[in-house]
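Much of our argument rests on the idea that a fold can be written as discrete symbols. In the encoding step, the backbone of a single protein was reduced to a row of integers, each denoting a local shape. This step matters because it turns folding into a mapping between discrete strings. For completeness, the protein is quoted in full, as a sequence line and a line of structure tokens:
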Amino acid sequence: MTAPPDLPSRLAGRTVLVIGDLMLDHFVIGGVERISPEAPVPVVRFDHEEYRLGGAANVAHNIAALGGRVYVVGLVGADDAAGRLRADLDRLGIDASGLVADKDRCTTRKLRVVTVRNQQVARIDYEEDREVHGDVEAAIVSRIEQLAPPADAILVSDYMKGVVSLGVATAAIAAAARRGIPILVDPKVPHIDYYAGATVVTPNHHEAEAVTHMRIRTSEDARTAAQRFRERTRCESVLVTRGEHGMTLLGPDCEAELPAEAREVSDVTGAGDTVIATMTLALAAGAPLADAARLANRAAGIVVGKFGPATVSVDELRGS
């Protein structure tokens, strides 16, 4: 069974508050013709460079690409990367008034050296991942409380770069509860106790295995892991993403196995961002949980055919 054909058209205009770890993905791209005489590493002859939104910023970009209205709450440094990230969000029509600047941190940036054939040679991470506290945490919580009222759904994108503390997660879940709107979480295992009360948590199969202490090899394993994950997390529903094996959905009133829809896999970077963005927007549009998951599965099948953090359009979801 597939999602209703009119669902992609219902996504436009829905408002989502995205909270989480904003990143800037920096690609340095060139050709490789020889190995360095100094060390057994390829010499990359520079051709060009690209910047893309990553992490929670990529989630926000995915929502905007589907016609959603987006507010973001997150953390940046006082550096050039923060200026570029803000400019890119503004260009896409994403409201960045919820950003908190911390002069003691750098903006999270992932620098990838890539060949013209999209083969990654090296990656350098610029980041400060200590968890927020004190005045910075209070400022993030304040932004959540200010920006939650117009939201149709809230999304927490946790990359463990410091933004999603227990206090921030609790504030986000409480804000959703006050509004009576869904809140979805893309989790990290060490923060599993932060997500109690979430509407949907979307672990990948490695995260589900780590939390449940079991191997996932079959669909039955995945269903059992989803149930254990749900009990452990104390969330309402779980969507386990399993790569080429599809997805497993377990909710209070529904259960579904969704086979993978990818025809060709180019790059899985950011695929989880697309899944949770699409699912959140569908729930914000009033779709039932199973239909939202099916649409997210279709979006995942499209985005893994693209290089780097990428987005999906409404026309692509319609299949046109």
Q: What stands out?
A: The chain has one domain: 10-32+42-311. The mean pLDDT is 93. The radius of gyration is 19 Å.
